[in-house]
Fold this protein.
Amino acid sequence: MAENGSSTTLGATTIATIAQEVGVSTATVSKVLNGRSDVAAGTRARVEASLERHRYRRRARRASAEGQIDLVFHEFGSDWALEIIRGVEAVTTLKEVNVLLSQLSGARRPPQSWIDSVIARRPLGVLLVMCNLTDQQRQHLQRQSIPVVVVDTDSASAASVPTVGSNNWNGGLLATRHLLELGHRRIAIISGPQDVLCARARTAGFRCAHEELGIPADPGLIRHGNFHLDAGYTHGVELLSRPDRPTAIFAGSDLQAMGVLRAARQVGLDVPGDVSVVGYDNLPVSAWIGPALTTVNQPLRDMAGTATQMLLDLARGNALPTSRIDLVAELVIRESTAPPPHP
């Protein structure tokens, strides 16, 4: 047994082995393993290189009824996040595992202080939602045998990171194809932020649906929002006030779609009589608003539950059959879409 109770699952490699190879003390190796900042950069690099060569890992712990996982969002506060939480709790409640909930105030990468607190708590594992770790941060947690799984609608995680996502490109295709099949030819999209891959994928599906029918997508009808109500309302008012307004809007999220519905009322238009609206996510509220929202079902609870089970399997030391699972997105047709009005 090495310093701080550290050991390895591979051969006879210990902290002492690493320390001797690099020419430093075991305390220095322990500091690097624990992500401490009080190690010179050059020394840290040599220690980490040696750890990687030896594929050093602390011995995995088995999940127990007293265990806890960390559930970390890049941000939360909407029904979208609640669906993820419900999916996680459906699994952890059965397994008698606790959940520690936190968020990164919109950041896509956690700070070093977060890594330090995770290592100090030693949870069974970490479940990240729409955020990810740097390679170095991931290595720190791996060496502590703290597994990480990502719920990532971006579909952008590295192959080495166990990830559950959904097919955003196909979702954008289905939503737009539905509107085109109804007869709409001036279709706008209010997607998410341009730097978020899932938003770009949905927009790519939107463009592809136009290309299938040989109908050019008007670049002037492509907008980028933030997936929230305010963006749907602001862009919706601007689009629907144009003399050449669109007859349909694919809002890119249910919250943005709700903002578009308010914008339509604001400018005196009927949905779906004057303009059709499609959302994305299929949040529970989308079936209860008026009119009930046509939307793309992104199986958020299933995504979260699948990722949680993967994380608990890793915590028990079990290998995963695959590191990437993409669940199917499906169109749910309700009352907010209809053929375009006659000219």
Observations:
- The chain has eleven helices and twelve strands.
